[in-house]
Design a protein that fits this description.
Protein Transport Mog1p, Chain A; 348 residues
Length: 348
């Protein structure tokens, strides 16, 4: 059975995508070690009550070597059984067609299993049902799509709004194959928003004005890059937070005030806590894309240097970046790092 892999996506030359951002290619050899998107839909259960403990995860580019989707599912299940607090019950497994390729579906119940992703808080007594889809997206790479719900909320009521939205989401999954009209965050389906991620694109519901059936509420996207410079590795922890209740203007004012406070008083503050501390702090303000500034501060202890940067680039949405490396590498590449930030592109 032939597997289709991703074609070259349509990005501006030398960019990758993360949600609604075009991220410039690194100027050095680099690795993207991790990328993950988390959603917490606001939905009603079959009793008409708000459902808690429901999560949707997308990890679009997991390195799996020569594993097939079925082998990856078997490995996943083995790890679940090792970590789960009690019995693991497999409800369903087998091949499925998803995102236009031959994928694999695994459905199981587990108690107290702590997943590989951050974000969901589980009690040891909670029993969850998880639906995991394993999608081959590129040579030696696989995407994981995962729905987590409490067993008592996971009823076979297929006509609920959530189940209809879930099907819209699954149907929207596509291996990233570019066309110029795709560089937008507006979904094709009514009242949806498109996400562009490595290897995949998909659409999620925007919900009602009262936020019911909305998936983008205080959700989180994360990515870890590493540049391999002549002076040593530089690590980039990238995060996007979305669905919050603030305007760009009011949030950036708070970001600037906090960054200036750390830049001016960070050394004094740490010195009071740790008298032998010799960290030097400095306020940072540098271009982010063509029309914005990103704000933050540097923290240098002569051995390691860190940049902590943040910008609210849309209402309710922030881009957070932590950059760290040895002081020589950071000082040698600081100008290039700031130039790289200036080449970000924000999708409409």
């Amino acid at each position: 059975m032939q597997t289709l892999y991703a074609q070259e996506p349509y990005y501006p030359q030398g960019y990758t995508t993360m949600d609604d951002l075009f991220i410039p290619e690194a100027p050095f050899s680099h690795t993207i070690a991790y990328e993950n998107y988390r959603f917490e839909p606001i939905v009603l259960n079959d009793k008409g009550e708000l459902e808690y403990g429901i999560y949707v995860y997308v990890e679009p580019a997991y390195h799996i070597g020569l594993f097939t989707p079925k082998q990856q599912a078997e490995d996943w299940l083995q790890q679940v059984r090792q970590k789960a607090k009690g019995e693991v019950t497999v409800r369903e497994q087998g091949p499925v067609k998803l995102a236009g390729v031959e994928a694999y579906k695994l459905v199981y119940e587990a108690q107290g299993f702590e997943p590989t992703f951050d974000g969901d808080n589980r009690k040891p007594s909670d029993r969850f049902i998880e639906r995991v889809f394993f999608i081959p997206v590129a040579p030696k790479q696989m995407a994981f799509i995962r729905l987590v719900r409490k067993v008592e909320n996971d009823k076979d009521v297929q006509n609920t709004v959530f189940w209809k939205d879930w099907q819209v989401f699954l149907n929207s999954l596509r291996i990233a194959q570019g066309a110029p009209h795709l560089d937008t965050s507006k979904g094709r389906a009514p009242n949806t928003r498109r996400y562009h991620v490595r290897n995949l694109r998909f659409e999620i519901p925007l919900g009602l004005p009262n936020e019911l059936n909305k998936w983008i509420v205080e959700n989180h996207a994360a990515r870890i890059d590493t540049w391999k410079t002549p002076q040593g590795e530089i690590k980039f922890n990238i995060a996007i937070f979305d669905g919050y209740d603030f305007t760009v203007k009011e949030k950036n004012k708070k970001i600037i005030d906090e960054a200036k406070a750390w830049g001016k008083g960070g050394s004094f503050f740490l010195k009071k806590l740790i008298p032998e501390d010799d960290n030097v702090f400095e306020y940072i303000e540098t271009p982010f894309g063509k029309h914005d500034l990103i704000y933050g501060y540097s923290d240098d202890d002569s051995h390691e240097k860190n940049f902590t940067l943040e910008i609210a680039y849309k209402d309710g949405k922030t881009f957070d970046l932590e950059i760290s490396g040895n002081s020589k590498a950071m000082e040698a590449q600081q100008k290039l790092i700031f130039e790289w930030l200036g080449h970000f592109i924000i999708m409409p």
